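A.,

Following up on our hallway conversation. Structure tokens first:
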């Protein structure tokens, strides 16, 4: 998305999208693991809410959040409002 990697997660019937790069040291959140609505960065364990992009480990840190829609077999992402 505009040159940024996006991590896409499925929570039931819902598709959620956030920035893929952890702000700590650039770890790929797609390579992390999901616990409920939290994705954990595989490098140092920073935790991010997949709904908001907010970092649960360090207050004030976050990754971008994107609006995701599904049309047929395609997933579209756009900047969240």
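Then the amino acids I'd put at each of the 81 positions:
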């Amino acid at each position: 998305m505009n040159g940024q990697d996006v991590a896409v997660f499925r929570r039931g019937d819902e598709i959620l999208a956030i920035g893929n790069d952890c702000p700590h040291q650039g770890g790929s959140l797609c390579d992390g693991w999901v616990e409920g609505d939290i994705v954990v960065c595989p490098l140092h364990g920073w935790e991010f809410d997949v709904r908001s992009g907010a970092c649960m480990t360090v207050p004030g840190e976050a990754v971008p959040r994107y609006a995701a829609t599904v049309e047929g077999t395609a997933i579209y992402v756009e900047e969240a409002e």
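The CA atoms of residues 66 and 80 lie 5 Å apart. Curious whether your intuition agrees with the design.

B.
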